[in-house]
Structure formats: C-alpha cells, structure tokens
Amino acid sequence: MDVFALSERLMRMDDAAWERHANPLSVWSRVAALPLLVLALWTRAWIGWWCLVPVAAVALFVFVNPRLFAPPARQDSWAARATYGERLFLARRERALPPHHQKMALLLTGVSAAGVAPLVYGLVILQVWPTLLGLALAMGGKLWFCDRMVWLYEDMRGAGRSAAAPVDVHRG
C-alpha cells in the first residue's frame, strides 16, 4: 500500500490544487495545522466534547488549504520547490528517481510516523512532554522530508535550467 498516493487521493489533489499548494502561504499555514490540531484536542480538558468543533475546523482547513491560495508568484521559493519535489516523488512509479532520495523520503516518513505514538499517548493522558516529543518527531520528520523534496526537485531539474523553470511535475 502506498500511503503517499492514498493521502493524495484522500485530499483530492489535482494539478490545480497542487499548483496552488506550491504557494508559500499554503505550505507554511499547513505546517501550523498539526500544532493547532494538538491544541484543539488538548482543549478537551477544558471544554469537553466541544473540542470537536476546533478539531473539525482544523480538519476542514487542512482539506481546503491547498485550494485557498493563488499559484505562487515565484516558482523558486523553498515552499514551491518542496511541493514540486513531492509531486515528483509521488510519480516515482512512472519516473525513475535517484534511489538515495527514495530511501531518505521513506526514512523521514518513518521518523514522522514514530512521532504518532508519543503524540497520541501524550494527548490521551494530557501530558506535555510526550505530546511535545511526538509533535517534534512528526513535524521535524515532515519538514526534513520537505527539504529533501527540494533536493530531489533540484536534482531532477538538472543543470543549465533557470531557477524559475520547474521540472514537469505533471507527467511521469
């Protein structure tokens, strides 16, 4: 099972959504989603089941976020290149990628996944340290993954092209 492709399908990401998601405002506001979700879940200590209202708001934001912003004005920002690299990674079955990028992407996804257990545990028992550990692993792994996608994009773009000229991420 390819969790990356499953995630893309669940988010209903088409070419237009991906292009809009390359906007740095989309990328960086999406980075804030996990801490906001943690905070929303933590509020159950104060507001009980009403915490589902902010949880639903964060979930809705995560879904609509890639569609909220215009395509990026510049295609050479870190956020845009990370998004383009992720698209290349998702198309790895149609287009060969350097093996070292594939291995690191899977390893970093594992780092993010390793954060789920302490994060959930901390949220269940409402303890700060396991929650922060899980959040740090999940977000650190994801941000490092994104940085690796910038590297993948740059490697696939190749030498001699201008910084603003993207690799065709729409085709395998």
Automatic annotation (TrEMBL):
Pfam families: DUF6653. Keywords: Membrane, Transmembrane, Transmembrane helix. The chain crosses the membrane at residues 47-64, 105-126. This is DUF4395 domain-containing protein.
